[in-house]
Amino acid sequence: MPPETTSLPGTAPAPRDAGIEKHGVDTIPDHDRTGRPLDVVGILLGSNMCLGVVIFGWLPASFGLGFWPAVSSMVAGTLLGTVLVAPLALVSFRTGTNLSTSSGGTFGVRGRLIGSTIGLLLSLGYAALTVWTGGAAIVGPLHRMFGVPDGAASYSAAYAGLAVLAVLIAIFGYRLLTAMSKWVAAGTLALMLLGIIGYSGKFSTAPVIDGYAMGDFWTTWALSTVAAGLSGPMAFITLLGDYSRYVSPRRYSSGKVFAASAVGMVLGLLVPQLFGTFTAFASGAAEDYVGPLVAAAPVWFLIPLLLNGVFGTIGNAGALIYSMGLDLDAIVPPLSRVKATVLTSVVSTTLVFLGYFAWDAQDAVTAFVLLLTAIGTPWAVITLIGFGRCRGVYDPDALQVYNRRSRGGIYWFTAGWNMRAVVAWAIGSTVGLLAVDTALFRGPLIEWTYGIDLSFVLAAATTAVAYLLLTIGSPQPVPEAVETEAPARAMSA
């Protein structure tokens, strides 16, 4: 594969047209792959500048950590997760389709439904969280400024309005999300700078609550590393491919796509999360984040906070609902992307109302991210091992067998399932779940890890060992027509 060049003869990028995106999880032809690595950075940065991501910076404070331990746990978790997750962008960069469909090259064309389901659940939960926090960021300022009732009716109206706007953005798809993310990123960065000024007079590095959530410092720090730090990159294990699939390998190198994904994730996660940590300590947020945030805000900061509650939320929720639509489209091929997007938005909005009326938010969010990290990590590990084994060379047509409701192809394995990959994923997921520690569920392996949640590490290591052992003598399928070219292309990337 050649390094990045100017447009090659006959391969100029297609115009960046507006309108509703036509592609679902089909293979995008090269003339439609008009994205750039910078677009990947932009959408990862802009789509995360919302309270749904900011609130993860509050979690370490709610666990009883001081400011600097909270910061170090998030930085450590984010960097560790990025090392694992960022290479996944290269899979869709090679295949031209989303990551769950691409994983069929390793799991089988039906086995890739595991990835579709994980991706759907991840996006579903995070979209609900985003709209939930966004609604609070709208109702709170309106209540303080204009006396709007701070009750169920106001929250219900805010949630419904945000959900409708987010689904409209998701329906239009990739190009609108890419364009919007740049403006949201610029506006929200300015808002955060104003926020640092506005809250600085009340800031303290002392813990906002007495005692550690897990009883001692290091166990609580480890929980924060996973729940507040590592969970951020893990949320992207199926989302990254939604954007890298629009970048053409004929015009850009793998190195640039990987760098763009890593930089976009680190900045897109740490900037809002660290702002969340700063404001959590400045506002004394213990049991709740958004309420104390609004209460402690200077009056002049309420309008910027309200604007972020609207635009930051619909940008992030729009990207997540867009990804949900792709995953549901991959699971149920007869559904169009647009219909799948509308359906998943309804389910996500239902979860928002349950989160407001029925659940303990902190416990639900923490348990959700830890449990999904435990089952998502093994899938990501196996997909990456498969990518390395085939040296990034896939048969795009064979990956679409399930979507065409047909049979056969080099990724058919056993009735569409690579049972070696499925068994390795099941083993890794089981170990991960048994080692997880949340307020709602405590795995028995916690007693063997000295009370520290090592579910991510154990799930990843167990999966890698199990998959490598199970696939001894069973090479990754490589398309015959390009098998001899693969090493040269992979090395030049």
Automatic annotation (TrEMBL):
| Pfam families named in the record | Transp_cyt_pur
Q: Where in the cell is it found?
A: Membrane
Keyword terms of this UniProt record:
Membrane, Transmembrane, Transmembrane helix, Transport
Cite the residue spans of the region called Disordered: 1-31
Q: Does the keyword Membrane apply?
A: yes
Q: List the InterPro entries hit by this protein, alphabetically.
A: Pur-cyt_permease, Pur-cyt_permease_Fcy2/21/22
Q: Does the keyword Nucleotide-binding apply?
A: no
- Membrane topology note: Multi-pass membrane protein
Chief site of localization:
membrane
Residue ranges crossing the lipid bilayer per the database entry: 40-61, 67-93, 113-132, 152-176, 183-201, 221-243, 255-275, 295-319, 340-359, 365-388, 409-436, 448-470
Renumbered to this chain, the Basic and acidic residues biased-composition regions fall at 18-31
User: Which top-level group of life is the source organism from?
Assistant: Bacteria
- The family this protein is said to belong to: Belongs to the purine-cytosine permease (2.A.39) family.
Q: What is this protein called?
A: Purine-cytosine permease family protein
**Originating organism:** Saccharopolyspora griseoalba
